[in-house]
Amino acid sequence: MQGNDLRQRAPLIERLPLATDRPWLATGVTAAMIAAALVLRIIADPALPPGFPFVTFFPAVILASALFGLRMGALAGLACGLLAWFIFVGERNSFALDWGGVVAMAFYTLVVGTDLAIIHWMQRANAKLARERELSRALAETRELLFSELQHRVSNNLQVVAGLVSLQKRQIADPQARAALDEASRRLALIGRISRQLYDAAGSTRRMREFLEPLCHDVIEASGRAGIRCDVRVDGDALLAPDSAIPLALIVAEAMANAIEHGFAGRETGVIEVTLTRDGEQRIAIEVRDDGHGLPEGFDIEASGSLGLRIARMLAEQLRGSFDLVGGTGATARLVLPA
């Protein structure tokens, strides 16, 4: 049923030949076209000079072949040829042929045979193309389904790993080790939450705004801090290549997590502003700015012992960019990347 529905929705040229399942209809319409060709030829006979016995029969043969396929085209060719031979070629109302009649019938046979062969070849090629297109559509649907299932399973597995790390933390007494496991669990859980949104089956690029807004929402939701708001502002959107999505997500998430953990320590509310700006066609800058406590006096990211900041700098270098953390009113994490 689905194949019939697709065939009905296809353009007319892709549905040819018609009435393949109703041969009586095809035969009846073909017979009507043959009769019409004969009537038109008889009407036009007084006005036509000698040498045009097949002038109205050729269109009937071509139409029958194009609309109903090779069999109906051959039937029309045979019937039209016999009618033209008997009435208009050589001696009227006779099948007797002189040399001129033989040449005329040979010409008719050659033209009709060529027309039928070309039309039949074109219809077969068109049908093959339609089958290949349908197969490609089915394969594309299967690929998207498998890709979605893979993304779902990867995301679920990452969430399971994050949960196992959290369970393992309960058996460790050392505060630093527990904090490290907390960080690892948080990062795994975050990747699991956003991995379904990072890629599509076609591998197409995404706009940065489309990427940053759900990412920021996921980070805030994962933190459990309902009083913190994140605003995303994009001045000059940019495209994000699929292979840059995970590193960029981790950098932005790390900057936001740092703001939530340290900038808003002891506070229930706060605002994080994520901005993207373009420097011509050369660079883009992503800033994560908070209105929290700011950086400690004399803070140096090079001397910082934060594993998260070291990971952010390493990932920025992987993207051929740079990452820095500066103070002021609150703190600002700045990521600069080639456009």
UniProtKB/TrEMBL annotation:
It catalyses: ATP + protein L-histidine = ADP + protein N-phospho-L-histidine. GO terms for cellular component: membrane. InterPro entries: HATPase_C_sf, HATPase_dom, His_kinase_dom, KdpD_sf, KdpD_TM, Sig_transdc_His_kin_sub2_dim/P. Pfam families: DUF4118, HATPase_c, HisKA_2. The chain crosses the membrane at residues 24-44, 56-87, 99-121. It comes from Sphingomonas baiyangensis. This is histidine kinase. SUPFAM superfamilies: ATPase domain of HSP90 chaperone/DNA topoisomerase II/histidine kinase. Gene3D superfamilies: Backbone structure of the membrane domain of e. Coli histidine kinase receptor kdpd, Histidine kinase-like ATPase, C-terminal domain. Its EC number is 2.7.13.3. SMART domains: HATPase_c. Residues 149-339 form the Histidine kinase domain. It comes from the Bacteria. It is found in: Membrane. GO terms for biological process: phosphorelay signal transduction system. It is a multi-pass membrane protein. Its main location: membrane. Keywords: ATP-binding, Kinase, Membrane, Nucleotide-binding, Phosphoprotein, Transferase, Transmembrane, Transmembrane helix, Two-component regulatory system. Signal peptide: none annotated. One of its GO terms (molecular function) is ATP binding. The keyword Phosphoprotein applies.
